[in-house]
TrEMBL record:
CDD domains linked: HP_PGM_like
List of residues binding substrate: 7-14, 59
Pfam family, one: His_Phos_1
PROSITE patterns listed in its UniProt record: PG_MUTASE
Protein name in the entry: Alpha-ribazole phosphatase/probable phosphoglycerate mutase
GO MF annotation terms: phosphatase activity
CC per GO annotation: cytoplasm
Active site: 8 (tele-phosphohistidine intermediate), 82 (proton donor/acceptor)
Key words of the record: Glycolysis, Isomerase
InterPro entries: His_Pase_superF_clade-1, His_PPase_superfam, PG/BPGM_mutase_AS, PGM_Phosphatase
Amino acid sequence: MELILVRHGETSGNALRQYIGRTDLPLNERGSQQIIELRNRLAPLLTKVTRLSHSPLLRTQQTAELLIPDFDQHSADPRLLELNFGDWEAQTYAELEATAREQLWRWYDDPWTVAPPNGETLQDLDIRLSAWHERIACDASADETLLVVSHGGPIRWWYAKYVLQDPARFHHLHLPPGGFAHVRRTTDGWTLVEGEITAT
């Protein structure tokens, strides 16, 4: 089985470096262009896709439709949603440093158990992504290629847990808007074939 994990293209919130979780923003012009360029780059691989899943938000749906315009079996899965940032939604790091510095740093130090006010912990994210992972592991056959369009947080967490087998490296991974990771499952687990996910 192979997965093509794609982060949606840029939105206005990404351009402003805001924490955007559940706000339903569309792709901006640059974001659409990023995905068109990615489609051209991955054209041979995209012809092999047998299933396509994305989060229920517009930016991932638009990304999926740009990547494979005529694919007729889209599946919107809420388990692929970005981390819920709660009351910090649509705020920047600088804004939170000024208004909620102590709480912000508690979250940075222990995101597994500490959540933004009215938001999710990484443990919450892990529970739903693990359920999604188990489902595809059971449902998809060994020769399938799945296109999964999601968000930066879920993709980085899944990659750290299942490819690197070290969830603690989550915060050291970077995947730009419109970036991808092509991974393959072997008898030894998941391995990276190619992609733009990097560690700092």
